[in-house]
Every structure is written in C-alpha cells, then in structure tokens.
Amino acid sequence: MPNPPSILTIAGSDSGGGAGIQADLKTFAMLGGYGMSVITALTAQNSMGVTGIEAPSAEFVALQLTTVLEDFEVAAAKTGMLFSASIIESLAEKLEGKNFPLVVDPVCVSQSGHRLLQEDAVQALRERMLPLADLLTPNRPEAELLANIEIAGEVDLHEAAARLHDMGAGAVLIKGGHFDESELGQGRMADWLFMPGHEPLVLEQERVETTNTHGTGCTLSAAIAAGLGHGLHLDQAISLAQEYLNLGLRTGFAPGRGCGPINHSATLQYGLRGDMSEDVVARVAELTAKYGF
C-alpha cells in the first residue's frame, strides 16, 4: 500500500480543538493525508473565545519548518495564523524555494473577535506571504483588509481579487460566509474563485443554518491542501473541500458552552453508522466514492 501524501500545516494551536492546527490535522487524516505541523503560536482558547496567546521565537518557528522539510516529501501545505511580522519573514525565507502547492489562509481575527495577526504583520503578510500563495483563501473582512477596499458588490469583488493578484497571489478564493443571502444576487452560499487568465467561477453550495461554525476557514483551506496533495486540480480540490466542510457543518455539535466546531469526523461516523438522516448518509457515500477517501 502506498504512503499517504504528506500534508503540512503552518498555523497556531487551538486548545479548544476546533480550529487551527487541531482542525487541520483532523481534516488531513479524514481526507487520506499524513499530517505534519509547524506551530506558530499557542492560544489559550475555548468555545467562548481566546484568553491569551504565546508565540515561540521566529527562529524556532523556522527551525520547525526546516526540520520537517529536511526529512519529509511535502505534497502540499497550508498556512493559517502566522501572528507576527518576524514569524512571517522567517517562514517566507524558508518557503521561497518550495516545490509543492501552498494554500495561504490569511487568518487575522478569531471568530470571537480576538486579533490573531499583529497590526504590524499585515504588510509583511502582503509582501512576503502572498507572493508564495498558489491559492489565497480570504473571507470578506480579510480580503477587504489585504486589498484595502470595501466589498459592497460584485465589482468590488473583482477589484479586490485583482489587487491581491497584483500583490503576487496566484488563484484567489474569496469565501462567502460573511455575505448575506441577499447580497451579490446569491440566494445560496457561494465562494468566488479568481484565477489569472480565466473568468471568475461562482462556486455555489447549500447554505447550512447552524451556530456550530468554529474552524470553518481552517478546515476549508486544509481540505483544499489535502486535495492538492492527492494530485487533484485546483477546482477539484476546492469542490472536495466545500463538500467536506458542508457535511461537517450539517453534522456539527457543541461540546462547550459557546460556538461549537464542525464535525471533522462526519465521513467516518456516518459512513459506518446509520443513525443520521438518509440525506447525510447519501452525502457521505457520494463524497467518499467520488474522491476515493
């Protein structure tokens, strides 16, 4: 049996388990990858919010990455919370010669509103990390921050993506979770994929009404990286990630008193059990059959 593809996450730790490194590694495992990690920060975090952050030195973050790359053949990687300008600089220096696709999720603020990227790190993210991104996956506030534009309609979406391309990002996936159903003419959930030289793609999916949404951005970018690590084309990897995330949202739960996580184990739980709705069981069967995971 061949080894699974080695997928790397470079991100912060979520002690509550729903986002960050923890969400990424769960996603890699569920989608048939071997997960590895470079930890950029430790958060004291639960389902109600972030109470503290401690970051290792930039030198030690770089050492983690160097040590992983010296031994493992990385098939794909993603970044999440990078926290500081010095950490971004140290990582960018090591990643400049990469020979694998990199998904950059420009995490700036936690779901509870706690800042996860220092203010002086925003420019470093623009100048050093965006040019290394084969795919950039900002949500609406992140796209507005990085592109320095307010997105109020479809024209603004195109302009934001153009500005991000000009900064060096490859493909740009602007996620639709922060848009209302009535905005931009969409009655469903949609992400917008912009690729240089191609017409934008509106990637629709069913909107899930749930309050258990912790870790959605981390999970989506991790699932895309997993798909790329398996050799899927970018649009296929995004479709896989959307389907996996949608299923996790539909079967999410609340282990704490605040915002719960998505269910990263849905494909395992409901592929083996029959105690969920026929619709969810059918979605699991379709997902696993389609992608072979």
Automatic annotation (TrEMBL):
Segments passing through the bilayer: none
- Which SUPFAM superfamilies does the entry mention? Ribokinase-like
Gene Ontology process terms (BP): thiamine biosynthetic process; thiamine diphosphate biosynthetic process
Highest taxon listed in the record's lineage: Bacteria
Q: Where is the Pyridoxamine kinase/Phosphomethylpyrimidine kinase domain?
A: 14-263
| Pathway note | Cofactor biosynthesis; thiamine diphosphate biosynthesis
One Pfam match = Phos_pyr_kin
The cross-references to InterPro entries, in alphabetical order and at most eight, read: HMP/HMP-P_kinase_dom (IPR004399), PM/HMP-P_kinase-1 (IPR013749), Ribokinase-like (IPR029056)
Q: Which UniProt keywords apply?
A: ATP-binding, Kinase, Nucleotide-binding, Transferase
Gene Ontology terms for molecular function? ATP binding; hydroxymethylpyrimidine kinase activity; phosphomethylpyrimidine kinase activity
What GO cellular component term, any one, is given? Answer: cytosol
Q: What is its EC number?
A: 2.7.1.49
* NCBIfam families documented for this protein: HMP-P_kinase
**Record PANTHER family:** HYDROXYMETHYLPYRIMIDINE_PHOSPHOMETHYLPYRIMIDINE KINASE THI20-RELATED, PHOSPHOMETHYLPYRIMIDINE KINASE
Spell out the protein name for this chain. hydroxymethylpyrimidine kinase
